[in-house]
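Collaborator request, handled under Task 6.
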Amino acid sequence: MREDSKPEESILPDRDYLMDLLKNIISFRTVAPPGDCYQEIVEWLEPIFRDMGFETTKMKMPAEVFAAKCSDSRLVGDRYNLQADLSVGAEKTLVIYAHLDVVPAEGEWDTDPFCAVQKNGRVYGRGVSDCKGSVAALVAALKALLSKKKPKYNLSILLTTDEEVGGYSGLCYLTDLGQVKGDLMLCMDGFSDDVGIGSNGIITWDVMVKGRSAHSGSSFLGVNAVERSILVMERLIDLKKVVQARRSRLPASSPVKSVGIENLMPILNITMVNGGVKENIVPDRCVLRGDRRVIPEERMEEAMEEIERALEPLRSEGIDFELKFYPGYPPMSVDPEHAWVNEVREAVERGMGFMPQLSAAQGSLDQAYATEKTGIPTCVYGVGRQLESNIHAPNENVRIADLEGYTRFLIELLQ
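Structure tokens returned to the collaborator:
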């Protein structure tokens, strides 16, 4: 280094601005279902990006597309997404994605879930981790960076809706429109523990076991669908043992490793049972529902066929049933040796103060749909800790230090 040269000045985010952003973003009750306040939050964010020099597009999903693609009757109202693009003449474009919707704030909270309340080094509120905290950090990072220099990438910011209900109207819709365009991608719908390079796919299923109603005093005249469903459950539980003995080559997250599971694993769950209308009526139907989490080494089609093969012999035993599948997001796997993965890890080390491990999520991500369709190398890294932040539960929270560190990470990644 020349004696007259000076080290590059650190770019630091404005903490007060960051916390004020988060407070405002949390106040929008973008709860899905039903999907409220989407237009309001997009119209609040749009001028913020425009003031930083971005070209913005507010995209309303056509009603006929929503009707055709979104069969969930709980979802009502218009679906809005925001795209913000900044061209700086760079060779590559980085796509940054987060969702604006949150799950309902049910249960007993110690604070108002739609106020970002700071307490004991943490901030509490619905969405502070999943994933409005990331959105606030992104805006604060961009404001700090752009006041000093241009980012090293062209930027395409995608802020979408309905992720929490596995909906099509957010990132999946934009992917099919051809709006997910770039050379690299960062999904901010993750945790701060590890850098994510994969996830499980998801298939929801249901089995309706059929019977015949009768008075319970003469139950021998009917066919008890609830009792017959036990045989179906037994077959599924036997299959569960086979499925969950498998492992992916992708490592599990650090919190999952802490309970002794070293690699991503597939899952088969029975999560709901619904049958019967009254104690003295033999039930004529019983519906079992659940999901199948699919590792990247498996195929979604084969996972469904495996369940069919397990249950089909029951027909010859007189069990009448109807099996349906509802495939969701596919599994995702990114090459851990890709240069983008290392770049993200090094930015985390500089911004957060530690070198993160690589891992894959037991859950499922809409990001996987975009990655599969576009082939864009993707890393998943967000705000919050998997075993601390209580996402989807009362008292969702993040460490304020993590929120500030995540903002620094974004600056390091972009400068």
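The cover message to the collaborator said: "The radius of gyration is 24 Å. The longest helix spans residues 225-243. Please let us know whether this matches your experimental observations."
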